[in-house]
Amino acid sequence: MTNEFYHSDIISIKDLSRTHFDQIFAATDRIMELSPERRRNLCRGRVLGSLFYEPSTRTRLSFDAAIASMGGSSLGISDVSSSSIHKGESLADTVRMMSIYSDVLVLRHALDGSSRFASEVSSKSVINAGSGTEEHPTQAIQDLYTLRREKGRIDGLKIGIIGDLKYGRTVYSLLYGLGNYDVDVRLISPESLRIRSDSVYEIKKRLDFSESTDISEHIDELDVLYVTRIQKERFPDVEEYIKVKGSYVVGLDLLGQMKKDAIIMHPLPRVDEISSDVDDTPHARYFKQAEYGMYARAALLNLILNQDVRPG
Ligand code: NCD
């Protein structure tokens, strides 16, 4: 089987099929099974260039850790004020430079369309690490991988997605990704944070979902509760944020109503939407999910950088 990921861009989860996911999952399984010594040979001497115009902890560090674990290195900009971006350098010029210094680029930017644009000017593969409110495809890959590992399957799951469905880009990538599977999705949010109407049409073509504002309607039947942060920084008006802040808090009381084997996921960072006493319960999988993210990103980098990797 040829490696279709070799030298490709990862811009939107919509560009990937179920077969692609199977290939990335199998590659991730293999990376996890390799000894550290063997992993260190996979991308020896390769350079990952990261451009983070927005804050990040897990995404940036997991890409750094992933390339380092495969013998490569990373360089990048995570503090825009200390780079020439601060002097007014354009995204296009910054990306062009970065594609000279590195073998693969990872970009996070506040604008929708930023990664697609970067891929057009870059001579190297571009991976979207979050583009505005639009998408966060590698997060969705890690989320789907987590479902498969922690629930043993994706088909047949009842999945509740709760929180900020309007501005949360992880939600859109996850929904587009889930559109490849036979799942039952319940969207739960305050009225003002329902999924954007311009995306509903597209999501409906691929997925069955219902919408509600009340988690208690669904809690006892869910296999998975995917919790998201209210994206304060994306609200045009802080007053609107204050109205919905703290709308849902997942605590032990709610866990008591869940199926015994239901799991709780969250792309992180969490602010106050999951209370910390949930962390020690067997339902919590968000830290495991973050760990899988590092391996899934390593698998993806390996596929993009090396033609002879067996996909799937
Ligand atoms: C998410 C993001 O940046 O969209 N973070 C992440 O990469 N895990 C979610 C968030 O910021 O709430």
Strand content: 5-15%
Q: SSE order, as H and E?
A: HHEHEHEHEHEHEHEEHHEH
Mean pLDDT score: 96
How are strands sequenced across the largest beta sheet? 7-6-5-8-9
Number of strands: 9
| Gyration radius from CA atoms, angstroms | 19 Å
Largest sheet: 5 strands, parallel
Low-confidence stretches: none
Query: Roughly how many Å apart are the termini?
Result: 8 Å
Could you say which structural class the secondary elements and strand pairing correspond to?
Answer: alpha/beta
Shape: globular
Number of domains: 2
- Hetero groups: N-carbamoyl-L-aspartate
CATH architecture of the largest domain: 3-Layer(aba) Sandwich
CATH secondary-structure class of the largest domain:
Alpha Beta
Number of helices: 11
> What's the CATH H-level homologous superfamily of the largest domain?
Aspartate/ornithine carbamoyltransferase
| CATH structural fold name of the largest domain | Rossmann fold
Binned, the helix content reads: 25-40%
Description:
The structure is a single chain. The protein is of the alpha/beta class. It has two domains: 13-136 and 291-305, Rossmann fold (3-Layer(aba) Sandwich); 138-290, Rossmann fold. The protein is built from eleven helices and nine strands. The strands form two sheets. It has a five-stranded parallel sheet. Helix 3 crosses helix 11 (286-305) and helix 4 (91-101) packs across helix 5 (114-121). The longest helix is centred in the C-terminal third of the chain and has 20 residues, at 286-305. The mean pLDDT is 96. The structure holds N-carbamoyl-L-aspartate. The site of N-carbamoyl-L-aspartate has 11 residues, from helix 3 and helix 7.
